[in-house]
Amino acid sequence: MKAFAVFALLLQATSGQVNRPDPHGFHFVRAIEVQPGDSPRACAALDGAVYEHAGAGLADVRLFSDGAEVPYALTLSDTPTASDAAKVLNLGLRDHHIVFDLQMPPRVYSRVNLDIDQHDFVAITKVSGMNHPGEAGTLLGTFDLFDFSADGLARNTSVALAESSFPYLHFEIAPLGKGHAARDMNPLVVRGATVPPSRQAQTVYTTVAETSNLRRVQRESVATFQLPARLPVERVRFEVGDGGARNFSRTVNIRAKADGEAGAAQEEVGGNISRINMTQEGEKLHLEALTVPVTVGSNAQVPAYLEIGVDNGDDQPVDIRAVKLEMRERKICFDAPAGPVQMFYGDEKLAPPEYDYGRLFNTSSPARTAVLDAEAANPAYVAPADARTLLERHPGLLWAALIAVILILAVVAFRSAKRV
């Protein structure tokens, strides 16, 4: 019986213990500065450093205040609604100008995308807001519409407004120039319009890496990045100066592969950047489209090598001052306690926390702004004791115990047989 008791104790030693998070067990710490305000909630935007040093899915992120754990919720900036169609009303021609009204969706908006079935044109459109069709309305601005596809350049049929909520908009489009494109532009080229989410509802991005070092590789201007594991990259932004090509449309080639892995598959995506900066019949036309959507690294569990090339073809290179990698803004939100708050991470053994606060979190509630201080090594860090079980540290003990039990049973059996 003693042999069985010893064996049972050894098996009991194999069961691990779940440790609650302790501020001394994290490699990194950051103070959180909560700005004054009336709301009990505070939210701080996360940066790339958190993703570089935290565990997968930010599972090991914890907040503490005066030694007590503070529950939190993570939010992701995203466009909550899709574009809505606007109904075209009263389409016609007046004094060689195309005129029409748009019945707008019942919400705030800041942009209208016109569906114009016309190429190689330049036009000026005047936009007014109205409560009812036919009234004088309120002038919201004058905007440029153009298409330079014949020259391999950009097209713009969008109107960017201040935040507005008029139920109707009135458009008056005046074609510029005396060529055939101006003469052929008639009301039938207006096929419809869509209204994207308002500017306040647009996705917000955070820069996670940037470089101003580009090199020429054949026809490309190339920027390279070494990405840490799990760092999400969801958009590439270019900062362009006034040197180089003044007006351009360039193909962007984005190539990514696991860093240091021989024969690793390379992921490739493409996009386009463009700029129009010219004068037509005294009218200044300006448009910049300098971002490329991309999804890299969000599921990568290893560091990655990212190469971004802008194909200049046989034209003068674009004057690229910087290339920035951006992710959708992530925030950590919590009810601010009376004392100072610190964020800890860098303990990959921890499982994700389960808070009622996160399950009941309402993203529409107001919140104060909070700011993460610079990342620092945790001065209170203490290397954890060996959390492995006795048998994990000494795997030979199990076999030794089994052999001992067998030998003891054999001796007992031999003695019993001898007595019989």
Structural key phrases:
single chain, 420 residues, disordered N terminus, nine-stranded antiparallel sheet, nine-stranded mixed sheet, mainly beta
Gap between N and C termini: 21 Å
List how many beta strands DSSP finds: 28
Oligomer classification: single chain
Mean pLDDT: 84
Q: How much is the radius of gyration in Å?
A: 32 Å
Give the biggest beta sheet: 9 strands, mixed
- Number of discrete helical segments: 6
Low-confidence parts: 1-18
Q: What is the helix content?
A: 10-25%
Question: Strand share of the residues?
Answer: over 45%
**Shape assignment:** elongated
* Class inferred from helices and paired strands: mainly beta
Overview of the structural elements:
- The chain is mainly beta.
- It contains 6 helices and 28 strands.
- The chain has helices spanning 2-12, 48-53, 180-184, 356-359, 390-393, 396-419; strands spanning 28-34, 41-45, 62-65, 68-70, 73-76, 84-94, 97-103, 109-116, 121-130, 138-147, 155-156, 158-164, 168-175, 190-195, 205-211, 215-217, 220-227, 233-244, 248-258, 266-280, 283-289, 291-296, 304-311, 318-328, 330-335, 341-345, 368-372, 376-377.
- The strands form 4 sheets. Strands 1, 2, 3, 4, 5, 25, 26, 27 and 28 form a 9-stranded mixed β-sheet that branches. Strands 11-10-9-13-7-6-14-8-12 form a 9-stranded antiparallel β-sheet. Strands 16-17-23-19-20-21 form a 6-stranded antiparallel β-sheet, with no helix packed on it.
- α1 runs antiparallel to α6 (396-419).
- The protein is elongated and about 125 Å long.
